[in-house]
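Practice problem: predict the structure.
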Amino acid sequence: MQKQTPLPSIVALLLASTAVPITAIAAPGDLDASFGIGGLVRDPMPGAGARATAVAIDANGRIVVAGTSSVNVIDGNFGVLRLDPDGAPDASFGNGGRVSEGYVAGSDDDAYGVVLQGDGRIVVAGTSFTIATASDFAALRLEQDGSVDTSFGNHGNGWMTSGRGGTDVGLALASAPSGFFIAGYLDGSIDLDAGGLLLDTLGMPAPLFGDAGFAAAGIDSHAAAAAALQADGKPLLGGTADTGGGIIARFATDGTPDPTFAGDGRAELGPDLGIEDLRVLADGRIVAVGHHLTDAVVLRLLADGNLDPAFGNGGVFTLTAASQSAQQIFANAIAVQGDGALVVAGNAISVADGSMLLVFRVSPDGTPDAGFGNAGARLVDAPTDLFGEAVAVQADGAIVVAGSDRGPNPSSSDDQFLVARFLGGAGAGGLPRISIADASRAEGDVGSALMSFDLVLDVPSAASVSVDVATDLGTATPGVDYTPTTATLSFPPGTTSVVFQVPVIGDTVPEADETFLVRLSAPVGALLGDAEAVGTIIDDDAGMPAGAPVAAPGPGPFALGVLAGLLGLGGALVVRRRRAEHGLRLTSR
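Answer:
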């Protein structure tokens, strides 16, 4: 809606008439004046209107914002904006900092989630609609420079679409070393069901999970707006049931309900409640945010799916609409600070002011952070309507909220990406950075030996920190030269280092040194620094590597011919021996 500009108040008139300059002291919850214009960035993106729904911060402090960039009123593209730390568009990304990509000509594509991989690539997910296939879950991967990564997805063009037919809508995205999980609602046998799609690291539906990658939270569920993916491969989704009650569901790695969670795989969170976002903490507990009637709620669950009685009022914190002089509050996104505090972004609706951007902070015990904003909350008003859809915390504790500035045009053609940065303050517990160092070790002759990689936080954290770690391909052969390994590692409060170990498989074959990669992803309570390491397997076998060039010891043609024959025979024996050793090793496991 277009708002009415209020008449100046008596206080404002008095301040304007004084000759003495008044300097405001910035405080936690205030807009960061060094960012954009007065703490806000508005970007129209290419086309005819844009709305942001997701945000992430990369290892260089750049802000990646994803959403929908409209081509026209019936055709949208996935839109991605990357900003430098000061809020200026990053000229090294896409076209002047902006990317707008559609699945096919004429498809209507809306993005609702973004994750950053350890190698800097960007995965965006949401929904794609075409006349031929109706709506599908969709995902796209971009290279660091904004170009499309055509190695991703199931179409050879960087895109994944689910292709089930009917009404499948993706509304949230999560990642882990094993792949990605998109949550939303599915076209069920009776009605729309809350459900999700599991993808592998290449963007292909996981065939051994559920029904060709799909799983639903029950025929009595309605929709899911939140997603998480644990390092052990168990996905979670949050949303609502057909009755209007809030739910969080966790699936086993085969897509069936996880019986270790709430007894039957689904936590029922009460009537008139909806879950909009959730996070899994380093210790396995779950924090979620959503709404209860007109108010905002923050919940914390134990790892078994029961509400955590040590948080708020029986596991629930409520921010009432009345406390913000509003008729309704929408809490849409949650982030975890380094000190364990929770930051929530959304919007507040009032008759007088329309929609205002809202951010509030909750202490780790589930009480309002009185040192943030006005008794824990901060509202930002403007002549147009402002919406907060996503939130992230910078390494220095500053809070970044992404959403939309809805212009007065009813066609939405003047809607813009909105990015706001708020001061976190001394109590924000700025997030530390996790880095991993290269490692090496001799392979040995038999059995396996552990190669150790050091993971380091640049500063100690007051709360637990976790990160997913996984091996990736190099010149070494998985299962032959080393054992592929994944893990979630935790830094207890106050510590700065942990070790990740990968088994290296010994043999007696002379060969060149070989390498594999180790990548970090999905940090909780921290940001990624140097997120990739090289593991070097040092050959310690006597003799020359098979296939290496050999200089002839004598100049005569006869000697050269004899030597060449011997080398050929020796090389064949080495190759045969290596194949036999590998075959024995594979069949004996």
